[in-house]
Amino acid sequence: MTNVMSILLMGVFALIFLTLYGRIVYIQATGEIEGVELDEWADEKRTNTLSLDAERGRILDRTGMVLAYNQPTYRLYAIIDKNYSSHSAEPLHVTDPESTARQLAPLLNMEEKDVLSIFQKGLENGRFQVEFGNSGSQLTAEKKEEIEALGLPGIYFIRETRRFYPNGPLASHLIGFTQNQQEQEEGVMGIEKTYNEQLVGKDGFITYKHDKYAFKLLNPEEIVQKPENGADIYLTIDQKIQTFLEDAMTQVEEEYEPEQMMAIVMDPKTGKILAMANRPTFDPNERKNIVNWYNDVISHPIEPGSTMKIFTLAAAIDAGVYNGEDTYQSGSYKISENAQTIHDHRREGWGVITYNEGVQRSSNVGFAKLVWEKLGTEEFLEYLHAFHFDQKTGIDIDGERTGTLLYRYPIEKVTTAFGQGTTVTAIQLMKAATAIANDGKMMKPYVVEEIVDPEHGEILKQNKPVVAGEPIRAETARAVKDLLETVITSEHGTGRPYRLEDYTVAGKTGTAQIPDPESGGYMTGKENYIFSFLGMAPKEDPELMMYVAVKQPNLSPQEYGPEPVSYIFKTVMENSLHYLNVNPDKENTGTVSDAFVMPDYTGKTVQELKDVLESQNIKTAVIGNGDTIQKVIPEKGTDLYSGSFAFILTDGEPVMPDLTGWSLRQVLMFGELFQLKIEHMGNGYVVKQNIPGGNKIQNNQYLIIQLEPPGADETESGENIDKEGQDEEAEASVQAQ
After folding, report:
1. Which of 107, 127, 293, 346, by CA, is between 20 and 30 Å from 232?
2. Domain coordinates of the chain in residue numbers?
3. Exposed / middle / buried, residue 86 (Cβ in 10 Å: 0-12, 13-18, 19+)
4. Domain 239-579 carries which CATH code?
């Protein structure tokens, strides 16, 4: 029995041995286990593949200033497995967790005990390496160098990138931002989203053979596929003009705390957007407390108020039915016996006035009569279509919406004439207004100048001006500009607060009512409006056009609405036109003058030049107590106009002049002369300065000035005009009988 069992067991073991041996022979012969090729499996285990991230393309303004780029950052990790140091004379792992934790903690803004806890838990769990969460990620190059200077063994870094916006909130809704989606940077809004495909590029990789400790083999069979970096996108935005706009809007935001603001600056000859901003805004680097995710300039339709009268006027003139000297009874108007009553903002009106005066006073009755009695509602609708108020502008960025032409009933057709009921976006208004500024040619707006391959400098795409239509004739456009200038210059004009110091302006104010969902009507109260202005300058041949809208500002008892809007418009337009070297076209009287070419008076006497300039009605400021001219600003060859300003720098010691009565532009010119850092408060002319007159001037000093509007008489007159102009639709322009 024992022999039988022994033989049986030997047979079983022999069978098992033969089976295993056969399996080994089979594996050796085929190189395969359960369908897995062993050579491939081993090759895969010995091969390390690292991704080489493509650099996301930059976003730049039209001058090459960088608005968004990838900034290198570093993620910290520590190797705690002592086996990693087995083939090295120097330790490659963390040898002293306590000392390492003590030195690392202050540089990571962590508690020493928390860093030590990370090391201890990693060792207890047999981990090869540990990381330090948010405290150890997105470290700057400076922080990395600080940590490396400690010479701690086992401490390493992985290079990463983060999207950085060097100007913070500047043009944030337009530029947008990115966030990581499945380990890839994706644009979330704005240019970052619209052009994500062009910006991301194509990742590369590197592969090599290694041992179990991740060290390269002697023959690593390395393969490198270089990444293809994303394209650079150059915008039409000008950072300088955008900064003018952002600073002005920030000041208004701080002073008036409006519910909402939007503004846009455009070159009307090309359709290029030079600046675009919204409030509330946000910092794309932080992305905290984002109240509004939409670019309101292109995506928020509003009732435009009296800015719509620009296009009603253009339609009437172009159709040949406008006679500015014709008269009508202002105050109120009914298109039929049973229709609702249309009121002017001054409900009793101004008596019998001409249509030209009605344009200046922004009379709702005058524009209602133009459409109902002279032009006709159907022909007016054709012009609205020609101005593309029924369609998107086609601007080259995602998120555009259109307003709605409310044009079903007779009263809606008439109220559209003065901007009530019908809604439009700011970009629709600006596109349509290019036809006024550009001799009847309506330009398609765009924000991307070109897309460039950064490695080879090849232009992948370049946008050019596109004429989107010609809704009116050139002579019509010129006639409309002439009339819109009187809105600014006339004693009756609602646009008097928008006068510029050096340039003529054509434009139209707007005071749009805000629908009240609870009552089904409109909100009441002097602050519950969208105050706006659409203007272009210089009037004869506009180089810039701008739209500003401020919703529900907190006004003082003496203010009536145009104050915040006019501050933004005047500050941005005046500074931008000078920045673009557009010659002033305006004397003190507001008429165009002949240019005087600045001569070269270097080395001559101060009095000699003063006599010449004063004979041309050019004001001078002498800097220094010498008699001989060292330098003159503006320089020789510059065109100057009556009322212009020139600085004469003498060979004496330069001292600070008394700046009282100087304009902001004059102070900025002075600051450039001596590299002063200018900060200003208020609007108007200098009343205070932090550096007293007579003090020695030092380069890079801070010069702080306080500005205030002109004297009491002019202010009082302006307030009366403002009060009259602020209510263009305010007094419930359409009321039930």
Report:
1. 293
2. 50-235, 239-579, 596-715
3. exposed
4. 3.40.710.10
Instruction: Give start and end residues of each alpha helix (H) in 617-728.
Output: 664-673, 712-726
Both tokens assigned to 373 = 């009695």
Closest to 375 measured CA to CA, from 355, 349, 399: 355
> Is 276 strand, coil or helix?
strand
The values of phi and psi at residue 124, to 5°, are: -65, -35
pLDDT at 488 over 90: yes
Q: With H, G, I as helix, E, B as strand and everything else as coil, classify residue 219.
A: coil
CB 598 within 8 A of CB 635: yes
CA distance 631 to 454: 42
Task: Tell me, yes or no, if the two domains 50-235 and 239-579 fold the same way.
Answer: no
Taking CA atoms, 283 is separated from 34, 196, 294, in Å, by: 56, 20, 14
Give the end-to-end CA distance of the chain in Å, rounded to a whole number: 123
The alpha helices in 279-386, defined as continuous H runs, are 296-299, 309-318, 355-361, 364-369, 377-386
The model carries a pTM of 0.71
Q: Give me the pLDDT at residue 622, please.
A: 81
Give 73-129 pLDDT, tens digit per residue: 899 999 999 899 888 889 999 999 999 999 999 999 999 999 999 999 999 998 999
CB 726 within 8 A of CB 510: no
CA atoms of 195 and 462, how far apart (whole Å):
14
DSSP string for residues in 14-69: HHHHHHHHHHHHHHHHH-EETTEEHHHHHHHHHEEEEEEPPPPPPEE-TTS-EEEE
Query: Is beta strand 677-682 parallel, antiparallel or unpaired with respect to 702-708?
Result: parallel
What single letter denotes the amino acid at residue 511?
Answer: T
Phi and psi at 492, nearest 5°, equal -95, -5
**Integer Cα distance of 173 and 293 in angstroms:** 8
CA nearest to 386, candidates 267, 499, 468: 468
Least confident of 140-144, 231-235, 379-383, 593-597: 593-597
596-715 is a CATH 3.30.10.20 domain: yes
pLDDT tens digits for range 157-196: 988 888 899 899 999 999 999 987 766 788 999 999 999 9
DSSP-derived 3-state class of residue 119:
helix
Q: What is the largest CA-CA distance in the chain?
A: 140
Q: What's the one-letter identity of residue 116?
A: L
The per-residue pLDDT for range 609-646, each reduced to its tens digit, is 877 777 777 777 788 777 788 888 777 776 666 566 78
Tell me the backbone φ, ψ of residue 337, rounded to 5 degrees. Answer: -60, -40
Q: Quickly tell me which residue has 């194509």 as its tokens.
A: 202
Helix axes 309-318, 377-386, angle to 10 degrees: 110
CA dihedral 237, 238, 239, 245 (to 10 degrees): -90
Instruction: Pick one of 3.40.50.2000, 2.70.40.10, 2.40.30.10, 3.90.1310.10 as the CATH number of 50-235.
Output: 3.90.1310.10
Residues recorded for the chain? 737
In contact, 149 and 54? CB cutoff 8 Å = no
Pairing of β 506-513 and β 529-537 = antiparallel
What is the average pLDDT value for the chain, to the nearest integer? 85
Do the Cβ atoms of 119 and 80 come closer than 8 Å?
yes
- CA nearest to 715, candidates 671, 692, 685: 685
Helix (H) or strand (E) holding 206: strand 204-209
Phi, psi of 49 (to 5 degrees): -120, 125
Catalytic residue numbers, as ranges: 306
Count of Cβ atoms closer than 10 Å to residue 39 Cβ: 9
CA dist., res. 95 & res. 92, Å (int):
8
Integer Cα distance of 587 and 621 in angstroms: 19
Cβ atoms of residues 446 and 461 within 8 Å: no
